[in-house]
Amino acid sequence: MIDLSRPNLLYIHTDQHSPHVTGCYGDSLVETPNLDRLAADGVVFANAYCCSPICVPSRMSMLSGRHPYQNEVWTNEHALDSSIPTIAHAMGAGGYRPELVGRMHALGPDQLHGYAARYVGDHGANHPGAPGPDRGILEGTAGPHKLSLARSGPGQSGYQVHDEDVTAATIDCLNRLGVQKRAGLMKDPFSLSVGLMLPHPPYVARQEDYDRYIDRIAPPRKARAFADETHPFLRWWRQYTGSENMSDEEALRSRAAYWGLVYRTDVMIGQILGALEENDLNDNTLIVYTSDHGDMQGEHGLFWKHVFYEESVRAPLIVSWPGRIPAGQRSERVVSALDVAASMLDALGAPALPNSAGRSFLPQIDGRADVPGWEDVAFSEYCTDQFGPPGGAYQRMVRRDEWKYIYYHAQPSQLFNLREDPDELSDRSTDSGCRSILQELHAEALRDWNPEWVRQKMAQKKADASILQAWARHTHPEERYRWELRGEMNWLA
Fold first, then answer.
1. Order of strands, edge to edge, in the sheet holding 153-156?
2. Under 8 Å CB-to-CB from 75, ≥6 apart: which residues?
3. DSSP label at 471?
4. 50: number of CA atoms within 13 Å, CB side?
5. Rounded-to-integer distance, Cα 129 and Cα 483, Å
6. Could you report the per-residue pLDDT of 102-154, keeping only the tens digit for each?
7. Percent of the chain at pLDDT above 90?
8. CB–CB of 112/98 below 8 Å?
9. 84-111 CB burial, b ≥16 within 10 A, e <16
10. Is 340 exposed, middle or buried (0-12, 13-18, 19+ CB in 10 A)?
């Protein structure tokens, strides 16, 4: 018999999905019926924040339950120390056998980080310095470069092929679990994590998905002319990425493709949820859907991520648990990815990660009487010695209650009141009436975070990386968990 005192876990984690492009978050254009149904069955979090608006640091924070400055993963070239326990380790310690299908985006020889099995790997090199994937005609379009907008539209990205493989492997896992359950051999609950690449750019969607939106897609609501941008980092970023002179056609084409990719992601998630139901595994399954960060999609004149505007730093978060979490909820609580990690472990009865700042929000959503004491606060940081002006960029965001404060090292700060100004059009940092809250949040941002220390640690990592990268180039280490991305998988119509 299955131990009904502990739930199953189905944890689905996508890449670069902005909550603003989801039906249950208010987008009336995009078609996301499966995520919307999941939301109707559980709770939608309106204010969930990633720990860094870039892939690897965000994911390693979620995995380890630690902020980037605590696990020392700040860029997409940094590897998580294998001695740091993860949510997978905690699940294993709690009696589960955690398994992973697909995307994790961890670098280095440890491609499991506590997972007992992994069925589909990442498309990128396991080891920094090993040869990168062959993206064919879409080479250079996955990152924050003007080419990403120029080569957008109908076609096919290898990332979608990857996700179709992940979806098939996940359905196979669920079908096999169903066989075990029907045979009376399933004695323990399962823990299955699913990592999808979409809707990460290239902004290229298959013709049928692109055609769903190209004639209906609207231009960005908050398009900002480059001449109107006053913050020095944001001006530099727009110049560096080439987005200061993107055309209206490029913006609309990229947006239509992105909406198409979100739609297709929802279709695949629906197939996974369908397999869960068809195998009668959904009754006591905690389902968690989230993403590592968002995508600007032309708002404020920006695409991609890397910034602290809501479209970039917020992530969708939907949690469903039949019989335990009342359906149809919308939570306005401010939460972070660290809280998501803590909440999953709490629900599974697994040990909490000892050095994590994550808080379980389960008492806030599981139908208990009013539970006081939740602080509406989240932190995010963006530190880079790659995509930054000379000297690098060392930045930290604090979201507390209705206020958002952004610290830019050696540059002016920003302050927004999200209740009065949800579109972040009015920077209040020089408003004399906001001096007190500005000082308070500035002190909070720097209380346990030192940008100069971060700079020094990143310089050390960069020096170490030169040896590790040269080692990988010359020794060709085994890449056991790598998914082969081929050039011919990528094309434009």
1. 204-205, 153-156, 491-492
2. 54, 56, 57, 383, 384, 385, 386, 458
3. H
4. 36
5. 17
6. 999 999 999 999 999 999 999 999 999 999 999 999 999 999 999 999 999 99
7. 93
8. no
9. bbbbbbbbbebebebbbbbbbbbbbeeb
10. buried
pLDDT in tens, 41-51: 999 999 999 99
Distance CA 5, CA 95 (A): 12
For residues 166 and 100, give the distance between their C-alpha atoms in angstroms, rounded to a whole number: 10
| Cβ atoms of residues 252 and 203 within 8 Å | no
**Tokens standing for residue 63:** 């995995």
Q: What is the DSSP string of 66-85?
A: S-HHHHT--STTPPPPTTS-
State which amino acid sits at residue 296: M
3-state secondary structure of 187: coil
The domain segmentation of the chain, as residue ranges, is 8-380+478-492
Query: Which CATH superfamily groups domain 8-380+478-492?
Result: Alkaline Phosphatase, subunit A (3.40.720.10)
> Scanning the structure block, which residue is given the tokens 């995520």?
35
Quote the pLDDT of residue 96.
97
3-class SS at 235?
helix
- What 8-state DSSP symbol labels residue 422? T
37 by Cβ neighbours in 10 Å (0-12 / 13-18 / 19+) ranks as middle
Read out DSSP for 394-414? EEEEEEETTEEEEEETTS--E
Q: Which residues contact 138 (CB under 8 A, 6 or more apart)?
A: 151, 155, 157, 158, 202, 204, 490, 491, 492
Q: What average pLDDT does the chain have?
A: 95
- Taking 70 as the pLDDT cut, the residues of the chain under it are 1-4, 369-370
Report the length, in residues, of the chain: 493
Question: Would you put residue 249 in left (φ > 0), alpha (ψ -120 to 50) or beta?
Answer: alpha
pTM for this predicted structure: 0.97
Nearest to 45 by CA among 67, 24, 64, 27: 24
Inter-axis angle of helices 337-348 and 55-64, to 10 degrees? 30
Which among 331, 333, 354, 353 is positioned nearest to 344, based on CA atoms? Answer: 353
What is the number of helices (H) and of strands (E) in the chain?
14, 15
